[in-house]
Design a protein that fits this description.
The protein has helices at residues 20-28, 46-64, 77-84, 101-116, 146-159, 193-200, 207-220, 225-228, 241-245, 251-259, 265-287, 309-317, 323-335, 340-353, 358-368, 374-385, 400-407, 412-417, 437-442, 458-473; strands spanning 5-10, 31-38, 71-74, 90-96, 120-124. By secondary structure, it is of the alpha/beta class. It has a five-stranded parallel sheet with strand order 3-2-1-4-5. Helix 1 (20-28) links the parallel strand 1 and strand 2 (31-38).
Length: 474
């Protein structure tokens, strides 16, 4: 009797355990061919390419332990899949769903094509806690505000029988397939190899690393998350976001492991609400597919954004003269990651103090973050700009001096990334321009030489932003 062969298409689910599409496929077929397709016309930031290459290598290594390999392709997914399924023994095809406009249209076309070839094609949710269409308000519409969305989502999850699958039953298949590439032939780590290697030095990548990081976070940090998460000078965040983005760990595993821990409810629920925000972001993206480029609140289409290439470059390089802003931007370029509280501060400074379009920040984050996620990134930037569905009010303009003093009181975070400020007293760390000339001489620190002067006046630019918002609200 001929073996029934199925294909699992890995996308943003680069793991073997708790992979619903892979697990369900294993029940239907005798052997599985694991494939990955690098789609060239899908924009991926440089930092994400850096992570992706190592994650694919890690998955390939895990498959080799099961006497298989990851079959890697490059090009148009439909054309590649049409060629692969010419093998008459292939009866099933599976993947875990994605929720952006391009992926939805592409996947519908491929699924229709497979069905016409009498190949069973099943898709599953392996990327979110709940599907975007599952969470509805009492009127039957999708939620536009996070708090009620997460309350409804959380209650559904508590009532579900959640289970995590194992890779122990998988029977992978080795087969000669044309056009298969080696992972390094994708050339993901080029042309910015030196920068990417620096980023990689801060991270352990892959499924096992993700599970270990979650375990250590729960055991050592979660107990103080409610307070510690806002402190960039402390290490109380999970830093699990890039693993989550690439699907090295599922949100379901995070939810399950956190819920069964002995940590108090306040810290558990606060952390899980951050995972919930990710679901909410995809709820918005699914219902507002154009939100990656257009403001959700249409009145912001009239907002008088400025065009100032010099200020934009200064912001990107962390040379604005505002210490906590600059520290955040330098952390980003150093690690491919930025503390969430600081993301809000640098975002507010860009969109409100510099009046530069939120899309400029979204593009830079997309290119430089290892956790650059189409849903969370665009939703986050629209939130901080005030143009989102559930946005921070536009008049909420972060004062970076006060934010620094509150969340980095001794300036330890700032000094980590701007060592030239190490020589000045703590009271001036977040506003070195307040030092007199005599004080600067006393500490051998010259503003403009050792650290830039502020590129804008915070008080003036706050008033300017409020006036601009008032105009579009009239």
């Amino acid at each position: 009797m001929t073996d029934r062969i199925g294909i699992h298409w890995f996308r943003l689910d680069l793991r073997l355990n708790d992979n619903p599409a892979l697990y369900e496929l294993s029940k239907e077929v005798d052997k599985i061919i694991p494939i990955y397709i690098y789609e060239e016309n899908i924009e991926i930031g440089h930092a994400s390419k850096c992570w992706l290459e190592k994650s694919l290598e890690n998955l390939d290594n895990e498959l080799s332990k099961l006497d298989s390999k990851l079959y890697v392709f490059k090009g148009n997914p439909k054309k590649i899949i049409d060629i692969i399924v010419e093998d008459k023994n292939i009866s099933h095809f599976s993947w875990n769903r994605l929720y952006d406009k391009h992926s939805i249209l592409r996947d519908k076309e491929i699924k229709s094509s497979l069905n016409k070839k009498s190949i069973v094609c099943n898709t599953f949710n392996g990327y979110l806690l709940s599907e975007p269409w599952e969470i509805k308000n009492k009127s039957g519409n999708f939620f536009k505000v996070f708090t009620p969305f997460w309350k409804a989502n959380f209650e559904i999850l508590l009532n579900k029988k959640l289970s995590l699958s194992s890779s122990s039953k998988y029977n992978f298949y080795k087969k000669n397939i044309n056009s298969v590439l080696k992972i390094d032939e994708l050339k993901l780590n080029i042309p910015k190899k030196e920068w990417m290697n620096k980023i990689l030095s801060y991270w352990d990548i892959g499924e096992n690393a993700a599970k270990l990081k979650l375990k250590k976070f729960i055991n050592n940090k979660l107990y103080n998350y409610n307070i510690g998460r806002d402190r960039p000078d402390s290490d109380f965040t999970s830093k699990i976001s890039p693993h989550l983005h690439f699907g090295e760990i599922s949100p379901l595993r995070i939810f399950t492991e956190v819920m069964k821990s002995n940590i108090d409810e306040k810290n558990k629920t606060k952390y899980l609400s951050e995972i919930g925000w990710r679901d909410f972001s995809y709820n918005l993206l699914f219902n507002y597919p154009e939100m990656t480029d257009l403001p959700i609140q249409s009145k912001f289409e009239k907002f008088p954004w400025q065009r100032d290439k010099k200020n934009l470059i200064t912001w990107k390089e962390g040379k604005t003269g505002i210490p906590i802003v600059d520290a955040g931007m330098k952390e980003l370029y150093e690690m491919g990651w930025m503390h969430n509280r600081v993301r809000m501060i640098v975002g507010s400074f860009l969109t409100k103090n510099l009046l530069l379009h939120w899309k400029e920040g979204e593009r830079w984050f997309f290119d430089t973050l290892v956790d650059a996620d189409i849903g969370s990134n665009s939703a986050g930037w629209q939130w901080i700009a005030g143009s989102g569905a559930d946005a921070s009010p536009y008049f909420r303009i972060f004062n970076p001096i006060l934010q620094g003093k509150k969340f980095d009181p001794k300036g330890e975070y700032v000094k980590q990334f701007i060592p030239s400020l190490d020589k000045i007293p703590e009271k001036f760390i977040h506003s070195p321009w307040e030092m007199t000339v005599e004080e600067q001489k006393k500490y051998n620190f010259i503003l403009g030489r050792d650290y830039p002067k502020p590129i804008v006046d915070l008080s003036y630019t706050r008033k300017r932003a409020l006036e601009a918002f008032k105009k579009i609200s009239e």
